[in-house]
Amino acid sequence: MTAENNTGAPFSPIENQVMTALEKVIDPELGLDLVNLGLIYDVEVDPKGSCTVTMTLTTMGCPLTDYLNNDINRAILSVDGVKECKINLTFEPPWNVDMVSRYAKIALGIHG
């Protein structure tokens, strides 16, 4: 799976593995993973194994930021070849329900 909001080059195999790992990170409030919620904007893994994830949150000041950061780091560092994880948190563009995957919309009961 690739991030729908990724504006860079196509993902490498290791970046796709990172995206797959991030599908296991569940937002505890919504009960869905960060990828399907559209919160992951981009993933870059350099040749030295440093991974940078550009992402957002559903709201500024989310009380679960530390919890999510820990789960994100754990998931990303579980990918063979990734040695370091950096999280680039952004609120541009702001997250909205249009960024949610079809699967997540069905799970959340969003129609339209």
TrEMBL record:
Coiled-coil region list: none
Positions of the MIP18 family-like domain: 16-87
UniProt cross-references to Gene3D superfamilies, sorted A to Z: Fe-S cluster assembly (FSCA)
Matches recorded under Pfam families: FeS_assembly_P
Signal peptide: none
PANTHER family: FE-S PROTEIN MATURATION AUXILIARY FACTOR YITW
Protein name: Metal-sulfur cluster assembly factor
